[in-house]
Design brief:
Blueprint (H helix, E strand, L loop, with lengths): L2 E5 L5 E5 L4 E4 L14 H23 L4 E12 L7 E12 L4 H15 L1 H6 L4 E9 L1
Helix pairs in contact: 1-2
Length: 137
């Protein structure tokens, strides 16, 4: 796996993945940036949601569960001292679909968060990750 990140001369960066996909990162104005993009730590949170979301969708497809939508909402707290890692992350999975039941959804999320999601495995080294599910009608 490869990536390249180029500085914009202020506090912004453009990252290009080894598969040639670009993302923009920036710091908030109070941290010297323009606030023009997500911060690197916000990117980590979104990476956690994307990683776990892909697992959950894959698991639910194998179980032939008819999922219409899934939203993943994250709230994280960071340590006060540098390197200011996450020390607590709450993840809420919000599902909409046909005849959804708690148990298969919980099983899919648990498998992702405890076994398959690489990002969760890394964040778990410094933070407690808690998760919940909600089913919307």
């Amino acid at each position: 796996m490869k990536a390249r990140v180029q500085w914009n001369g202020r506090m912004g960066f453009v990252g290009v993945s080894g598969t040639n996909h670009a993302v923009v990162m920036d710091a908030s104005p109070e941290n010297g940036g323009d606030g023009a993009a997500a911060s690197p730590m916000e990117m980590v949170l979104m990476g956690l949601a994307g990683c776990s979301g892909m697992d959950v969708v894959s698991i639910l497809r194998k179980k032939r569960i008819n999922l219409w939508t899934m939203d993943i909402v994250l709230h994280a707290e960071r340590a006060d001292d540098h390197p200011r890692v996450f020390n607590n992350v709450e993840v809420t999975f919000i599902f909409k679909g046909e005849n959804l039941k708690d148990k298969p959804l919980e099983d899919a999320v648990r498998l992702s968060m405890e076994k398959y999601c690489s990002v969760a495995g890394m964040i778990n080294k410094t933070a407690e990750i808690t998760w919940s599910i909600k089913i919307q009608e």
